[in-house]
Amino acid sequence: MVIAIYLVTLTNPRFGVASALVLLVGFIDNFDGIVAVRTNRETKWGAFLDAIVDRIVDVCIGLLFIVIGAPLEIGILAISFALVHEYMRARAGGLGHHEVATITAAEKPTRIALGVMFLLASAIYPTSAIELATFATVTWAVVGLIGFAQLMRGYRKLLKQ
């Protein structure tokens, strides 16, 4: 992901390659979890590392948009919603509720898809990259707000028991 950030800062940005890297990271992240489950090689350490890598990916996608030119404030808001979204799940798990509660509009695949789509759009329309990054970041923040509300509702019901 750091390479993707570097690629969009070049004088002649490589948005398409950055998009492919984000997609690759998303596939690898999902694939390693599937392999661990199917081969009965799940460990607490692996789950811990996976969660950390997921948060790094979230931050990097937000940084990609900010580096391209999205407003810093909106980028921070979008990243914050992603981090809070996952913290809510982790905290509920710490309270003994390992249920998902609800699948939201702001799940990790949505965040990765936004990164891939808008970077690819920037590759096709490089002169509109700043506007596309801004739109992607606003979209991410709005979806994050919706996901936050969905999780609050789901966990309110679950944790009141």
Descriptive labels:
161 residues; mainly alpha; 6 helices; globular
Please provide a written account of the structure.
- This protein has 161 residues and is an all-alpha fold.
- The chain has one domain (2-159): Four Helix Bundle (Hemerythrin (Met), subunit A).
- Helices cover 80% and strands 0% of the residues.
- The chain has six helices and no strands.
- The longest helix has 31 residues, at 129-159.
- The model has no long low-confidence stretch (mean pLDDT 90).
CATH architecture: Up-down Bundle
Q: How many β-strand runs?
A: 0
Rg, please?
Answer: 17 Å
Q: Could you say which structural class the secondary elements and strand pairing correspond to?
A: mainly alpha
Helix content: over 70%
- Give, in order, the helices and strands: HHHHHH
Keywords: Membrane, Transmembrane, Transmembrane helix
Transmembrane segments: 15-35, 56-84, 132-152
Pfam families: CDP-OH_P_transf (PF01066)
InterPro entries: CDP-OH_P_trans, CDP-OH_PTrfase_TM_dom
